[in-house]
Amino acid sequence: MLARQNIRINALRMFSSSMKTMTTGGLPLDASKLKIVNKSTPSKPRPNDELVFGQTFTDHMLTIEWTKAKGWDVPEIKPYGNLSLDPSACVFHYAFELFEGLKAYKTSDNKITLFRPDMNMKRMNKSAARICLPTFDSDQLIALIGKLIEQDKHLVPEGKGYSLYIRPTLIGTTAGLGVSTPDRALLYVLTSPVGPYYKTGFKAVKLEATDYATRAWPGGVGDKKLGANYAPCILPQLEAAKRGYQQNLWLFGPEKYITEVGTMNVFFAFKNSKTGKKELVTAPLDGTILEGVTRDSVLSLARENLDPNEWEVNERYYSINEVAEKAEKGELLEAFGSGTAAVVSPIKEIGWQGKDINVPLLPGEQSGPLTKKVAQWIADIQYGRKTKDNWSRVVADLN
Ligand code: COI
């Protein structure tokens, strides 16, 4: 048993080290070559209350073509518009597609900052390497995204819960139905002024625990931001919605481990009646969990701000059965999802085996006390009220 496990771990190590050494030949991505074509009439900003997540785009987009023969071509910022692709392009048939999601914020001192873009670029390159699409220099793409935001800076919304959502996307564009490594690709970046991800804003949601479908599995690609990971997740969500739940809670394996919620990472807070301590817990990054930037931010801020005499912060396996048992004993304190789009999304109820597990909320409020604090810690950094390491990168100064 142990020998079999060691063989698997070694095989996975060999596989990931071969991914690290995979290089992209030809010209490197070079932000200094940027060409800009302006839209003739700039749009006016829409009022915040009209912004529906991902429905409005700014005036310009960034596109960069790649070919195996030449490498990365000249980056272009041009008016937002349709793409023209061969209908046999491999993106349409074999899902050579990956994306990222990050946000830019208008800060209290009138600057526009990107939140932890280095983390997104790192993950984007990992996703690209896994599906044989070209990798690139992260700093060059961050610089180009900065230029794109600067171009449409008048469209970045202001205010609590408002930001510019940035969607870098990489697709294989090789024409033909043979299944092989793409020799052409297109990297493009869209920007979308957004408000809260859920129309209801910061409001606790009801989840249904799903054990009849699996989001990701060991040795799979659940930790990569591939479009192909998202489409199969809609049906279980619709099933949950039919029974009155807004999202589903993904379980894995016979142990029914809790992995993610909808398209987000998930955290639970427990009380340990024996030690008297509290625990903030999320699933470990074992290759089946998306390496969420918000997940990482929550963990860092919790480790920094919570009193270790009162709290433990753990990345460990835990199951829906453990949550149900703890709820019975009054030891379930809080639960929330974390992701770029919704940032922190409180949970109030989990449907499991025909019963609802109640997650306590503060009286008359939409979350528990820790969830509220975590959301505040992150927002303070995103909106420039506080600083932390190099988390906020200034891309435009509006003063
Ligand atoms: C996120 O919140 O991180 C997401 O990936 C959501 C996105 C798919 C809309």
From TrEMBL:
Molecular-function GO terms, alphabetical: branched-chain-amino-acid transaminase activity
N6-(pyridoxal phosphate)lysine PTM positions: K225
UniProt pathway annotation: Amino-acid biosynthesis; L-valine biosynthesis; L-valine from pyruvate: step 4/4; Amino-acid biosynthesis; L-isoleucine biosynthesis; L-isoleucine from 2-oxobutanoate: step 4/4; Amino-acid biosynthesis; L-leucine biosynthesis; L-leucine from 3-methyl-2-oxobutanoate: step 4/4; Amino-acid biosynthesis; L-methionine biosynthesis via salvage pathway; L-methionine from S-methyl-5-thio-alpha-D-ribose 1-phosphate: step 6/6
Cofactor(s) listed: pyridoxal 5'-phosphate
GO biological process: branched-chain amino acid catabolic process; L-leucine biosynthetic process; L-valine biosynthetic process
InterPro entries assigned: Aminotrans_IV, Aminotrans_IV_CS, Aminotransferase-like, B_amino_transII, BCAT-like_C, BCAT-like_N, BCAT_family
Keywords per UniProt: Amino-acid biosynthesis, Aminotransferase, Branched-chain amino acid biosynthesis, Pyridoxal phosphate, Transferase
Record keyword Amino-acid biosynthesis present: yes
Aminoacyl-tRNA synthetase as UniProt keyword: no
Catalytic activity: a 2-oxocarboxylate + L-methionine = 4-methylsulfanyl-2-oxobutanoate + an L-alpha-amino acid; L-valine + 2-oxoglutarate = 3-methyl-2-oxobutanoate + L-glutamate; L-leucine + 2-oxoglutarate = 4-methyl-2-oxopentanoate + L-glutamate; L-isoleucine + 2-oxoglutarate = (S)-3-methyl-2-oxopentanoate + L-glutamate
GO cellular component: mitochondrion
Entry EC number(s): 2.6.1.42
Superkingdom of origin organism: Eukaryota
Stored Pfam families: Aminotran_4
Family: Belongs to the class-IV pyridoxal-phosphate-dependent aminotransferase family.
Alphabetized NCBIfam families for the sequence: ilvE_II, PRK13357.1
Name this polypeptide is given: Branched-chain-amino-acid aminotransferase
UniProt source species: Zygotorulaspora mrakii
